[in-house]
Specification:
The protein is mainly β and about 260 residues long. The chain has 1 helix and 21 strands. The strands form 5 sheets. Strands 1, 3, 6, 7, 8, 11 and 12 form a 7-stranded mixed beta sheet that branches. It has a 5-stranded mixed beta sheet with strand order 14-21-20-16-17, with helices on one face. A 4-stranded antiparallel beta sheet has the order 13-15-19-18, with no helix packed on it. Strand 7 and strand 8 (about 65) form a beta hairpin.
Length: about 260
């Protein structure tokens, strides 16, 4: 029988294997998204293997660095640069993918950590509840770098004063850890609300590109002109990528920016 590690257990003796940073066990996603279920294993002995199991049909999805699932949407995320992280990535998640997934270690006794994946339809109101969605996309706010698969960097300065009715753009660069099958879906948030690329607000546009020479994703959020309602925090992020933000302050057209 597998040893179920308690959700609050994040430490162990220096010589024993244990799951780290396992507080987020309920993963919520919207149909069509790419989901990364995190699993960080500390003190993994040589010869021990981390595997992912889909509980509902006891299907072995991955074992070590190898993917066994015939469905190409499933793959393990692991690299020599981040040897403790063994994430399970599911591309284009479907409602049928909902259920329990276990990250297992073939230790003695066997250890496992269960995650519950919930998938909502595209038309669900959960798209608007980004305080929940952020937990999925960014995998939390902890400083532990083992959970991040890249980082976003928004232009400096991080507080911009822009005159009312002026044009303005916010630039964001994303540095992904993996350059194969790069995800081009960059999310922009205004406070806790997603800025949709197909918005009817034609004065706002999003353009995203990928530079193959330096493996950097570049996304620009542009305003033809800003209004008082545009005041707030703008955040650039991707699934499993450490996000970055800029605060936009709208001032009177007669305001002397040079005095700041």
């Amino acid at each position: 029988a597998a040893l179920k590690q308690d959700a609050n257990q994040t430490t162990s003796s220096p010589s024993s294997v244990f799951f780290a940073d396992n507080s987020r066990r309920n993963i919520e996603a919207i149909e069509g998204q790419t989901v990364v279920i995190p699993c960080t294993v500390r003190n993994l002995d040589r010869g021990k293997v981390v595997s992912w199991i889909r509980t509902k049909d006891i299907l072995i999805l991955t074992s070590g660095p190898h993917t066994f699932a015939s469905d190409f949407r499933f793959e393990v995320i692991h690299s020599e640069k981040n040897v403790e992280f063994w994430g399970l990535r599911i591309r284009g998640v479907k409602e049928d993918d909902a259920g329990q997934y276990e990250c297992q270690v073939n230790s003695e006794p066997k250890m496992s950590l269960a995650y519950q994946l919930t998938v909502s339809g595209k038309k669900e109101e959960s798209l608007k509840k980004l305080e929940i969605l952020l937990d999925v996309l960014a995998l939390g706010e902890a400083e532990d770098s083992s959970k991040w698969l890249g980082f976003a960097k928004v232009q400096e300065p991080k507080e911009a004063y822009v005159q009312h009715a002026s044009a303005f753009s916010i630039s964001c660069e994303i540095f992904p850890m993996f350059t194969r099958n790069v995800n081009m879906d960059v999310w922009w948030l205004h406070d806790d609300t997603q800025i949709l690329s197909d918005t009817k607000e034609s004065r706002i546009s999003i353009k995203t590109s990928f530079n193959k020479e330096n493996n950097i994703i570049h996304s620009i959020l542009s305003f033809d002109y800003v209004t008082w309602q545009d005041f707030g925090l703008y955040t650039c992020l991707q699934p499993s990528v450490r996000k970055d933000s800029l605060k936009l302050v709208i001032v009177e057209a007669s305001f002397q920016l040079a005095t700041l």
